[in-house]
Amino acid sequence: MSTKAEQSAADIKKISTYCYQCVNGPDLLTVEVVDGVATRVEPNFDLRGEHPADGKICVKPFGLVQKLYNPHRIKRPMKRTNPKKGRNEDPGWVEISWEEALDTVAEKMNAARARGVLDEHGNPRLAFTTGGAATPFKYMGSFPALLFAWGPFDQSLGAGGTVKCYHSEHMFGELWHRAFTVLPDTPRCEYLISFGNNIDASGGVTGVRRHADARKRGMKRIQFEPHLSVTGASATEWIPIKTKTDSAVLFSMLHVLLHETPVDRLDVEFLKHRTASPYLVGPHGFYLRDPDSKKPLLWDNASARAVPCDTENSDPAIIGSFMVDEAVEIGADDETWTHRNIQADTGLEKTRQLVAGHTPEWAAQISDVPAATIRRVTNEFLSHAHIGETEVIDGREIPFRPVCTVLGKSVNNGWGGFECVWAHTMMQVLVGALEVSGSMLGSTTHLAGDTDWNRLLTVEEGEDGFMTHTFTPTSKEEWNNAPINRHAQDCLTPMAGKNMGAQLFGSTTLAWLRLQERAAESWPKPNPPDVWFIYKCNPAISFSETEKMNDIMASFPFIAAFAYTLDETNHYADILMPEATDLESDQLLRLGGGHYFENHWESEGWALRQAVVPPQHEARDFSWIANELARRTGLLEAYNSVINGAGCGIPLQGEGYDFSLDVSKEHSQEEIWDAVCKAASFDLTEGREVLGLDWFRKHGYKTRPYSRLNWYLYPLIEDKNLRFELPYQERYYRMGKELANRLHETGVHWWDRQLEEYEPLPVWRDLNKLWDELIEKNHNVRAADYPFWLLTGRSMQYAWGANVGIQMMKEAADNVFGHDGIIMNTGKAAEMGISDGDEIEVTSPVASTRGIARLRQGVRPDVVIMLAQFGQWKTPYARDLKRTGLNKLVPMNQDYLDGGGASIDGTRVYITRVGGRH
Amino acid sequence: MTRYVMVADLNRCVGCQTCTVACKHTNGTPPGVQWRKVIDVEWGEYPDVERLFMPVGCQHCADPPCMHVCPSTATGQREDGIVTIDYDLCIGCSYCVVACPYQARYKVDNPVFAYGDTPMESEAARFDEKRIGVAQKCTFCADRVDAGLAKGLRPGIDPDATPGCVNACIADALSFGDIEDENSNVSELLAENTWFQMHAELGTETGFYYLWDQEPSGDTDDE
Amino acid sequence: MNRFYTVLQTSWDWRAAVNFMFGGTGSALILIIAIASLPGTPALPAGITALVLVGLGLFTVWLEIGRPMRFLHVFFHPQTSWMTREASVALLLFPVTLIGLLYRNPAIVIAAGLLGLVFLYCQARILLASKGIPSWREPAIVALIISTGLVEGSAVFILYLLLSGSSMQTAMLVLLPVLLVIRALSWNSYRQRLIAGQAPQQTLSILRDIHATTLWAGNITPAVLAAIALLIPVAGPPAGAVAALLALFSGWHMKFTIITRASQQQGYSVGKLKRGRPQIKPPVRRKPDRFVF
């Protein structure tokens, strides 16, 4: 920091900034600048004691210096001179001035706008794609304000989202407990069951630290996963579960809790009053409701009759079947049935019946996990739940339930994701370990609200005693029959909702499939966008069945790429614009609070990323680019207005303050961020301090205390007398029925497979059998010929960092086993005559790839692993590593999409030995 | 007296390599040279497998084989136990490299840069000709320790007097301090945990302790 | 044994190996010819051959060091470094040998021969002190290096005699098989000790691969041939020549293999767990540097 710099020699400075190369950011760091050259990074030690990991930074920011000076960077804007686009075509890049680049881009934008922001199919003519779980937005300065000033823009052309995300958790987690993702309350958790959750690779600095502390404290982690990940390495137990059988084990765990455990050992009070367990379910699958108030009925043990769910002093029955005198049942499209003297089960009773046959013995046959292990783990989970205990935080008493279950990426997206997400949340519900001390917590919200820094703001009383939620409407009157973008999330995936980020949760696979004319047969093929902006993403590598991506991208009329180096996607671009990278650009961001994975702090505030050296060559700060394009497209006023709104993270005008910009004028990036800094500091200090850009440049960040009570949703749920919407999914079921009606009314039958998922309680699916069926149906092959599962694994060194061309990251990653090849089981390899270092070919139903076999004991014999995302053929440096990526092999096909439009980034493959040791 | 040692808690380490790269930043080592790194190992046979991450590097032995074999006296040892290399004396014979049982030493005969023959600005700024053709290894960041001590800081406690890898460790797995001080951080860690020294049978008496709680089972001889 | 990353050392390549090959042969040759020439002194070409061998070995080592212009620093650490000692002995070996040969002084030549033996011993100790390489630090390597040096020296002397038209000395034809038997026993014991000491698998496997050749072609066959040369004078020169060549090249091959291929490093391992505060051994340098043999 500058204070330290003052003590040192005049030519050495330490400048505060942050890294947000992944969702776990920002990591605050200092960069040493010697004679104007950034030489090294260090943690910002000023955060010791405040940051949950004492201000440490992860491995990735150490790549930033090389990222800055990488000679392969695009140095000035370039334009394509070869109009023919193709993988084997040389784009004929020539350097041009920024003036020409911006004029060209603005001209294309203006032309598109002149034709109308929507094309004849109603799709936006402007599309924007980024990667890294939207973390690139944390680098885009005021550019998002330009996009929002523009009007509708399409974000459906994904780079990996819905295939490489926790999609079911996003969808249902937010509905149930405002959990875009879930995490254990690790600092207190005692027993953690993980199904492939690779937290030590994906949880960032705070995740690693909190878990290391928890292990030291004695927390047990039981890791079910097909290969022994870095997280499995430090687990108490590794259980090599068969791929895609997690739901079987989870269902059998529910069986143990609901059939082999006395009910009074569960958290009965929680189930009665804070969940929908007692709600009575009618014969059509919808809640029985009070004929007058239409409120769901529950059986009150005290009065021995059915009463509305909000009846005071009731003693709800949670298990059992009860005779109800009079009730109505409201189905899809307001279809109503009136019942008299009808026998009805509670929601929890339905759940109990659902898992009746799913015994541990049954699960053992499917999953390779011994029944005794399932019973033992479940009972340990139960005994660690401390049911009945409480903890007082800031004067408020809340339950203490230090147990948690978490899922990995490929466990909770695609088919089976719903089952897993529901079942693991039910594990929590049965012991009352949801959103209370020590238990499973939600991280943040993107679907339920636009306030991702404070999910508590989204907790409002909705219908039936539950929280509100933002589904896309499915009623006849409100359903949108004309998709507003290429993946039609508003038509097909109502769970994605309608908030700002909703587009990111529609089926991005479907958008690409439609462009390839491989899906949605009754709908016309969408036009490619007139103007496609791409930034920090590489769908040509990171999406599925990547070889098919090339032709589609080559057909796009105009691609404007913010480009760091040449890569496989911007190979098809028309204009390349070098943007200022991490250490060269400015942006103020929220810090701390409760956020993403394990990023729960006891303080919150704002931090500045700033240029520690001027941008290299002719790279430009995103805010500067946004300004230039805003002016050239005549959107300056709208753009400024968006910035004044909250386009840069916080409104510039609010109660007691006004730092808003004159909308009629152009403002420099410094002026914009100065105003943002002032508004943020005013808001943070409740008006006591107004700190401008210069202050943040010097000090880096500003925080205030944040109560741990804010980590938990439970106090609010209790205060508002709400219930978590579990176990029974009546709203979801109704939504599915309505959606089916809407789609069938408009002649859409190609989404029927996905509609099957809209069940009130998820019925267990045999996913291995499903895959057998699907690959035989779609690829004309014999499933038995594909005996291996090809899976991927998180690489902490590479994930989200857009750093595959950084030598130092490669060097660090190579110390972690398997980055340089394909991991397979030693014994299985021996059986097949494969030695460590041999070249092998891995073939899926859609493609094959070659790589080096790297043998390990810690992987199932029927599984092979390709870490990270390789397969580059253009990106400098990465291209020469000749590493193998899985994406090319993963089939992209509508059948693999689940009800939410997501699929897994894994596939069935076979393996052949090609050559000797390398 | 003072004897600096490092303690690596293997129950904490997750092999993230943050220490590896932090060391590279702190000490400006060229590509391929890792004074500190974390190895990724496993033992046992499927399905009974243990995977372990182990930070390695110079162990700053009390009785260092490298120092004894060094013909030029370039390798030395300070009173505080830190094993040093005088780059001006070293002839680059690599005898120390083969004498070190911890694979801690490197020799780079020609300048190496991340991207080809031309150094990036950041590499040029940190390039040290003295290190060409001589042995190099972890110094326990002796320069940081000394600079910190001169400012009255406490090695292992204050970042500016502490090795870069320890400062960077996100799992709080690495600790540094004076083992001859009974109340130091490292002494307390050793008193409270089970631990081992690598290759103790060689009598090197390392200044590097590993906290760990399981004896390995089965045979591994992993290249 | 749990051990990880027992990778091959690459710091010492053929250049270092040549020093052990030629240096070992040359230094032993001086000793052999010094004794064999008693009461006289060896012919100058024989002595020069020995010195050239030693010199070539040192030259290739010089090619390997990273800072060749600083080669004089090699003499800085006689207290403990066997490399300093080897270099220092070499420094004496050249003038003493030359003086002995030129002045035809048997006593000085014998002194040179003893220096040669010390040089050979230093080479063995250089390897023994390399604690990072299990196949080098094995104590049995000392006997192996010395015995093979003597075999190689004897072999070169026999070849020298044949090439210079002199008759092979009976003593040499007796000595060679005796030394070959000693070398074969040393080789066997070296391998057995490595197996018992759990040297890296790769090391053992490479040594196993060369074992038959080393034993049969390198030791037993030349010993038999030497015996034939001794007993059947008519077959003497060819049998002796083949015996010497086999003895020489098998020694070089063995050493080349041990230095460049069977030299896997110690690797990393998880050790035996201990509890409680460790007994602290102070850094050795707190005491003044003393001469350690």
Short description:
The complex is a heterotrimer of chains A (918), B (223) and C (293). Chain A has 918 residues and is of the alpha+beta class.
CATH topology (level 3) name of chain B: Alpha-Beta Plaits
Shape of chain B: globular
| Rg over alpha carbons of chain C | 21 Å
- Share of β-strand residues of chain B: 15-25%
Count of runs of 4 or more consecutive helical residues of chain B:
7
Number of domains of chain C: 1
What would the average pLDDT of chain C be, to the nearest integer?
A: 94
Compute the CA-based radius of gyration of chain B. 18 Å
Name of the CATH superfamily of chain C: Formate dehydrogenase/DMSO reductase domain
Name the CATH architecture of chain C.
Up-down Bundle
Helix content of chain B: 10-25%
Number of strands of chain B: 11
Number of helices of chain C: 9
Label this structure with key terms:
heterotrimer; B: 223 residues; alpha+beta; Alpha-Beta Plaits; four-stranded mixed sheet; two-stranded antiparallel ribbon; 7 helices; 11 strands; 22% helix; 23% strand; C: 293 residues; 9 helices; globular
Walk me through the topology:
The complex is a heterotrimer of chains A (918), B (223) and C (293).
Chain A: H1 2-7, E1 12-19, E2 27-34, E3 37-43, H2 64-69, E4 78-79, E5 94-95, H3 98-115, E6 126-130, H4 143-150, H5 167-177, E7 182-184, E8 191-195, H6 199-202, H7 204-217, E9 220-224, H8 230-233, E10 237-239, H9 246-259, H10 268-274, E11 280-281, E12 288-289, E13 297-300, E14 305-308, E15 321-330, E16 336-346, H11 347-354, H12 360-367, H13 371-383, E17 390-393, E18 396-399, E19 403-407, H14 417-430, E20 440-442, H15 489-492, H16 508-515, E21 531-535, H17 539-542, H18 547-554, E22 559-562, E23 575-577, E24 587-595, E25 599-609, H19 622-632, H20 636-647, E26 653-654, E27 657-658, H21 669-684, H22 693-699, E28 701-705, H23 714-719, H24 730-745, H25 752-755, H26 767-779, E29 788-793, H27 807-813, E30 822-825, H28 826-831, E31 838-843, E32 848-856, E33 863-867, H29 878-881, E34 907-917
Parallel strand pairs in A: 6-21, 8-9, 8-19, 9-10, 21-22, 22-23, 29-33, 30-32
Antiparallel strand pairs in A: 1-2, 2-3, 4-5, 4-23, 7-20, 11-16, 12-15, 13-14, 15-16, 17-18, 24-25, 25-28, 26-27, 29-34, 30-33, 31-32, 31-34
Chain B: E1 4-9, H1 18-27, E2 36-45, E3 48-57, H2 65-69, E4 75-77, E5 83-85, H3 95-99, E6 106-107, H4 121-126, E7 135-136, H5 142-150, H6 164-168, E8 174-178, H7 185-192, E9 194-196, E10 208-211, E11 220-222
Parallel strand pairs in B: 1-10
Antiparallel strand pairs in B: 1-8, 2-3, 4-5, 6-7, 9-10
Chain C: E1 2-4, H1 14-36, H2 44-64, H3 82-102, H4 106-128, H5 134-137, H6 140-163, H7 170-196, H8 201-231, H9 236-260, E2 274-275
